[in-house]
Design goal:
mainly alpha; 3 helices
Length: 64
């Protein structure tokens, strides 16, 4: 289940990259707005456990 979810998330990220960030017809402002929207969706999809793990990892990286 985790592998499938990870694969789908990777495909979504690749699709977003190709459709949004590589699109020369979109302005930088449009790309940034879409990137922020995608980041918000990603953050909301994380479970509390995953968020805790990411925060702990960030704290550890700061001290290394």
């Amino acid at each position: 289940n985790r592998i499938l979810k990870s694969s789908l998330e990777s495909q979504n990220a690749n699709g977003f990259y190709e459709v949004t960030l590589l699109n020369t017809q979109k302005s930088s402002k449009q790309k940034l707005e879409e990137l922020n929207h995608m980041a918000d969706k990603w953050e909301k999809s994380l479970s509390l456990t995953q968020k805790d793990q990411l925060q702990k990892k960030s704290v550890v990286e700061v001290f290394h």
